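Notes for week 9. Today we move from apo structures to complexes. The key idea is that a small molecule is not decoration. When we ask for a structure prediction with 2-acetamido-2-deoxy-beta-D-glucopyranose present, the ligand SMILES becomes part of the input, just like the chain. The input block below holds both the sequence and the ligand string. Read it once before you look at the output, and try to guess where the molecule might sit.
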Amino acid sequence: MKYIVAALALAASAVAAPSEKRTDTCTFGTYACSSSNAGIQICNVSNQWEYVGDCPNNTVCKDLEQNGYTLPFCTEPEPAVEKRNGRPGQSPGEKCQTPGKYDCFGPYAIQVCDTQNVLKYVGACPEKTHCEYLNGIPFCVDSV
Ligand SMILES: *[C@@H]1O[C@H](CO)[C@@H](O)[C@H](O)[C@H]1NC(C)=O
Ligand SMILES: *[C@@H]1O[C@H](CO)[C@@H](O)[C@H](O)[C@H]1NC(C)=O
């Protein structure tokens, strides 16, 4: 009788290697999930990660790689948003033109155009901040 030795690579241990805090340098304007995947962070002009905001309750941040873009999303459920405020094409779930393009969603949140040309909710700005464009890229900036 022959033994068949299955050489099981312990690939699983390599998958979840959580970094405590992302302190790596990054490219200005890049978005990513926070290390805990509880929220979204953005790379600021100092090329350092800055926290944008928490994902809504019962959702988790996922980096979706699509067509060369890495787009962090807070996955389902979609937040309840007002879609009838006379801002057609401006709210999550609606059509958009440029995949990978981030925009302010109202004054206090950020959204992104996904590769299906549908706007996705990214995250809310923290308290006392609001969404503002910096070199065409939306940031949550201090309101005071
Ligand atoms: C960029 O983020 C880092 C880390 O959060 C922070 O120390 C720095 O002040 C930020 N730079 C600007 C210009 O906001
Ligand atoms: C989300 O969860 C936190 C902590 O459990 C709770 O304090 C907060 O009220 C919740 N928010 C909503 C909108 O349910």
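Helices lie at 12-15.
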